[in-house]
Amino acid sequence: MNYFGELIAIVVACSWCCTALFFEYAGKRIGSLQVNLIRLLFAFVLLGSLLLITSGRFFPVGADSKTWLWMSLSGLVGFVFGDFCLFYSYTLITARFSQLMMTLAPPFAAFFGLLFLDERLGKMGLVGMVITLFGIAISILKRSGGKNGGLGLHFQIPVRGVLFALGGALGQGLGIVLSKKGMNYYNQCLGDQEFFANYIPFAATYIRIITGIIGFTLIILLSGRKDKFIQAVHNKKGMLATLGGAFFGPFLGVSLSLTAIKYTETGIASTIMATVPILILIPYAIIYKQLPKWIEVVGAILCVLGVGCFFLR
After folding, report:
1. Which contacts of 192-199 are long-range, i.e. CB under 8 A and separated by 24 or more positions?
2. Whole-model pTM?
């Protein structure tokens, strides 16, 4: 049997592991806000070059005002709000716990899909939501002695980091739904030709990136962080890490994820690509000498199984 799509999905998961590690390192060196803007600038050049090679134009073609509106909203929610929260959570609870929390993005996407696209969540989706929540809970909570000798639960990682990671999942889930609505309008503009079917996701992502760059630039200017941004640009290690993250994430990861769902079922590819919380435990054990607890491994596996349930009918 041909497992090309599945193999590509594994490469995507590994690519996103690299992305998380690069951005965690860069965020601790130059700040999460600076990393967000710099990586989008890198992605702007990389993705624009890809569009130039494939379509002959550096900027997206054929997008009407409705496409720009919905994709811009997606960029503000997904890139500006969501990724700011996610990247900041990297510096608070590390990428391995943040990526675990990101498995909540599909439940958020299902909820907002119901609101904006009238997409119904089946019984297996509800089961997947419960499994994912349980997997996260056993990974980030631990038992402790309570009052009167009873047993209580408390977070083993900073609550602030959990909340920011939760914001990242919320932003990604809602951002995906807004993107889908925007791409529906884009598809109406360009038609159903095969070239445009492959072109639209990249061009739509490019619109999101443009919006994200504008949003983060305004935040940096209005918050008086221009000097910190200039210092970040001169930090060679931070810049190299950000470039690495931009290459493996917005550029390579997005491109290969579209390739994966082209050669295999979307549910299979999405479940494989959701294994990041499991795969990321390996580099942490090697690089940082941080062996995960068995309950964290079980929790990560449950989260991936929960995501898989969303694609069962």
Report:
1. 196/62, 198/258, 199/51, 199/54, 199/55
2. 0.86
